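Q: My labmate handed me this sequence with no annotations at all. I'd like to see what the chain might look like in three dimensions before we decide whether it's worth expressing. Could you predict it?
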Amino acid sequence: MARSKDQQARRTQLSQAAQRALLRKGLEGLRLRDVAEEAGVTPAAVLYYYDDLDQLMQETYQQAIERFGTERESLADAFDDARDQLRSCIASGVAAGPEDELPRLLFEYWPRSLRDPRAAALDSSLTERQVSAYNGILVLGRAQGHFSLTTPPRVIAACLVAMEDGFQMDILAGRRTRPEVISALYSYVHAVTGCDLTADEQGSGLHADRP
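A: Here is what I predict for the chain of 211 residues:
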């Protein structure tokens, strides 16, 4: 049992080192020795736990997806009012700025999904998880009488996720700010639900300039 815990701790350490190395080098320039140096071990030590760098990065990406999805869902679930849930979901899905590590990590790995079926499957699971979260909030808001949907909720949810992804790239590249993106998403929500999320934002405790 102790050996199993030690091995899991070492894998966690290597995954964290892989994240740091990826953010520093980028996926295309990343080498096994970069991760090993970041972790303070030899490349052979990394290969004791993983078949190759691809396997390590696949696991690292999967962990990042789980963290992103879980944090986002738990923050929204803290509210009963669908309007607050929607504000929370938007706020937690938009990067704080170019140096926001978790969104950067997800986008650094994303190009791999264009040619790697395993990476594509993980990316699809992330998208579906976010769409499902938004869909649930929109359905709840309609039931609570806050949203008058002009389009099926799942279509709106998919559009919100697609808009987030596009705007996220702008934030990470320094072309847009977080408040600008949240304002744009709020405008879209207003157009398709009739709900102005800025109307009582002060009372909700959620603000566009907060990460």
